[in-house]
Amino acid sequence: MNHLLKLPRLATRAFNTTAKQMKNRVPEHQKLFQEDNGLPVHIKGGTADVVLYRITMTITLAGTGYSLFWLLCACQPQNK
């Protein structure tokens, strides 16, 4: 039962220590994303953003094509 009474104190202590150790990197990201370099905002983060964008677009286009294929198959008359 003593362990349950100590749990809230331990939880707040854990969250307070991590918050103090974290550095605020928002100004760095603001400079990066507000820079006028001709890139769209969804790929300004670098190579990882470009790869994620291309994977997302590939999955979206493949899913759309797959859905249209099955819609075409569903609207064809069935031979009995």
Automatic annotation (TrEMBL):
It comes from the Eukaryota. The keyword NAD does not apply. Coiled coil: none annotated. Keywords: Membrane, Mitochondrion, Mitochondrion inner membrane, Oxidoreductase, Transit peptide, Transmembrane, Transmembrane helix. One of its GO terms (cellular component) is mitochondrial inner membrane. SUPFAM superfamilies: Mitochondrial cytochrome c oxidase subunit VIIa. GO terms for molecular function: oxidoreductase activity. Pfam families: COX7a (PF02238). Pathway: Energy metabolism; oxidative phosphorylation. It is a single-pass membrane protein. The chain crosses the membrane at residues 51-72. The keyword Protease does not apply. Gene3D superfamilies: Cytochrome c oxidase, subunit VIIa (4.10.91.10). One of its GO terms (biological process) is regulation of oxidative phosphorylation. It is found in: Mitochondrion inner membrane. Belongs to the cytochrome c oxidase VIIa family. This is Cytochrome c oxidase subunit 7A1, mitochondrial. It comes from Umbra pygmaea. The lineage of its organism: Eukaryota, Metazoa, Chordata, Craniata, Vertebrata.
